[in-house]
UniProtKB/TrEMBL annotation:
Residue stretches making up the Fringe-like glycosyltransferase domain: 116-294
Keyword Glycosyltransferase: yes
InterPro entries linked: CS_glycosyltransferase, Fringe-like_glycosylTrfase, Nucleotide-diphossugar_trans
Family: Belongs to the chondroitin N-acetylgalactosaminyltransferase family.
Organism (species): Astyanax mexicanus (Blind cave fish)
Protein name (database record): N-acetylgalactosaminyl-proteoglycan 3-beta-glucuronosyltransferase
One Pfam family this sequence matches: Fringe
Disordered as annotated region, ranges: 74-111
Cross-referenced SUPFAM superfamilies: Nucleotide-diphospho-sugar transferases
Class in the EC hierarchy, top level: transferase
Subcellular location(s) of the protein: Golgi apparatus, Golgi stack membrane
Keywords assigned: Glycoprotein, Glycosyltransferase, Golgi apparatus, Membrane, Signal-anchor, Transferase, Transmembrane, Transmembrane helix
GO CC field: Golgi cisterna membrane
Enzyme Commission number(s) of this protein: 2.4.1.226
Amino acid sequence: MAVRSRRPWLSVVLGVVLGFTAASWLIVPAVLELNSGGAKRKSPACSSYSSYHVGALAAGKVWEAGGSSSTVAGRALRREAEEEEEREEDGDSKEGEGEGTPRTGNAGDPSLPKHFLYVGVMTAKKYLDSRAVAAYKTWTRSIPGKVEFFSSEGSDVVPLPSPVPVVSLTGVDDSYPPQKKSFMMLKYMHDHYLDKYEWFMRADDDVYIRGERLELFLRSLNSSKPLYLGQTGLGTTEELGKLALEPGENFCMGGPGMIFSREVLRRMVPHISTCLREMYTTHEDVEVGRCVRRFGGTQCVWSYEILKLNCINITLASAEIQGDASQLLL
């Protein structure tokens, strides 16, 4: 009788021991991996770029000035990127994309419209022959639409080692913060391309964009709705309460890039002059977000998909890397 009464308890104890053992096999490796990665552990969706590769791109040294031949670093970087894309897309063919030629592809589907995304890159005269040239010869190929670089008045006559589509904004200088430059760029997009593209993006000249992934994500959304996408910001700890943001209000941070649906630009841009007159901070991205919220009827949308797209943002100063890459728009 005593033996029979012990059997259920023995079964329970044995089950608990086996359960903890099996759980340890599954959990411990993951914990060790997380601890080894630390705070800089990236999502599997993010590419891994060394500071050397990013530095070569940032300094405009991926391609030799004045010609289409690549340096050793440029060839290595491009070859690495191509191999990675082949692995990620399971051998998707990349034939037909010439070096340095802006691509107007549509995620492998020729039936999709080519005029899908317009990217306006904010730059300055002193960066036209470095960052702008490097960006134009790399990631712009993957954009399913058009890319133009916006700079101060007179930038269209700056001599460059290779052709780059530069828009010289009348009455705009390269002073920082670039609030007027940003708003005038959005107005230019609205006035020239509102009915030609579904999505519009404001990007910095030190960001690397994976156009195929961005296109795949944007095609899952409706551009006829007021959508304002990016990495949500509320300001730093020191800025809390000083940005004139009400509880629940936010903005899309400028570094990783801001994406606007056609409908947002249609609603907001006619009121840009008001937004420029009634600014509460010196932060360009905060004021753009305020204008979108006030006249576009929406605010920055945060989602897991957006987080994956904003994995590494290349931060540059004087065409040199000043820190670890941590948020690149892939």
